[in-house]
Amino acid sequence: MDINQTKSFKPTLGLLDATMIVAGSMIGSGIFIVTAEIARSVGGAGWVTAMWVLAGVVTLIAALSYGELSGMFPKAGGQYVYLREAYNPFIAFLFGWTQFGVIQTGTIAAVAVAFAKFTAYLIPSFSEKNILLDLGSFQISSAQIVAIISIILLTYINTRGVKHGKVIQTVFTMAKLLSLFGLIIFGLLMGANREIWEANWQDPWNHFSLEMVNGAVVTKALSGLAFFGAIAVSMKGSLFSSDAWNNVTFIAAEIKNPAKNIGRSLFLGTLIVTIIYVSCNLMYLAVLPLHDIAFAANDRVGVAAAEKIFGNIGSFIIAVMIMISTFGCNNGLILSGARIYYTMAEDKLFFKRAGELNKNSVPAYGLWIQCAWASLLCLTGRYNDLLALVIFGVLIFYVLTILGIFILRSKRPDIERPYKAIGYPVLPLVYVLVALSLAALLLIFETSYTLPGLGIILLGIPLYFIAMRNKGKAA
Fold it and tell me: What is the dihedral of CA 455, 457, 460, 462, to 10 degrees?
């Protein structure tokens, strides 16, 4: 270990920084892309809007519930610590392993792929269609290489200290918040068309799916389980776009007055993003016919709207916006993710060196391990595939964590709680029921992606016992 190495994290992040990490980690590329799939899945403008409102409401409920846990345990590792305290090291390990195996690294990969996708809009040679290596069933494109380079660059910056990551996070998040507000305002003032708006809202609650067959749009009525399946597929996108708000809990040890500021930042960050997301989708519905939203080229609804608002330069504007958005988003994900592996290593349940801080007071080894695996995931799938793989595990561990509030109120009633979960016990239970229903529907309707996600969680079971055996030998 370097003789200059410090042994503790430095609390250098204030409330603004923490809020920017919440909002910045949430806003990636989803808001510009996934509305197309939602429109194809559920049809009516009312249902499209409802999917974003519902995602925002359940995210706010979860964030407000986490405020109680963050106040009780303001430590590095966040959600990992909550699960360890509420349940046991085994459940906490499964979470940490799943974060490393698919959730954190898969999200980093998905966001990096989206960054590359829109970089290619400006520089065509970086396109997914530019294949650099073709081995038949396995191909590597220049877009995947761009995605990997962006992950490596951000990882390197974050090994230089949390202050460097903080500056990137605040600057990029402020830039994307202002640009999103600008897009919404310009869209409603310059691009809105009353006829389009009225046509989109003529039959807003009629639930049907849309499909393009031989150049013609085929409408299919939805009923019964098929309708709930369409809801689940739609919520997969809107929830993923609203995810990663919990990342701020991982860096609790680096936040000033974490017992209060984490809860505040969770509320402020998720509220800001929810308002932006719902407003942005209302703007889409005022600017574009529902057909154009559902069948936007490559699902780039944001590009289609910007071109309608600003003309040909619109595609350039939105591409730059998404590059800023995804780059800033990944900075927050990369910065916070390695803190989980640090706490796991302290518990002797991860690589020992991941529990060491470098001379800049950051877990550099954990950052580089995360970088390597996320980079490999960039080579394995496309954006939507990675998204489906991630969201199932996310829902399972959110449910376990929120149920942990009930367990800790019984198990640790005397511990100080600067915040208490809003609407307890009703609202936390509402979240648990919604999330479990979605997870079950995704298992039924998105089996090819959710089963591998479940498999990765279950793979953690033998890995835990191997880690415990090694821990016993080291003792």
Answer: -40
pTM, full prediction: 0.88
Exposure class string for 405-423: b at 16+ Cβ within 10 A, else e: bbebbeeeeeeebbbebbe
Q: What is the pLDDT of residues 157-178, one digit of tens each?
A: 999 988 888 899 999 999 999 9
C-alpha dist (Å) from residue 209 to 43, 199, 440: 5, 17, 21
Identify the pLDDT of residue 387. 62
**How far is residue 40's CA from residue 210's CA, in Å, rounded to a whole number?**
5
- What is the chain's percent helix, strand, coil content, to nearest 5? 75, 5, 20
CA distance 86 to 166: 31
Question: Is residue 315 predicted with pLDDT exceeding 70?
Answer: yes
CA dihedral of residues 51, 52, 53, 57 (deg, nearest 10): 100
Query: Tens digits of per-residue pLDDT, 268-303?
Result: 999 999 999 999 999 999 999 999 999 998 888 999
Write down the residue that tokens 């996708």 correspond to. Answer: 117
The number of beta carbons lying within 10 Å of the beta carbon of residue 382 is 13
Could you tell me the CA-to-CA distances from 92 to 47, 149, 350 in Å, in that order? 36, 31, 12
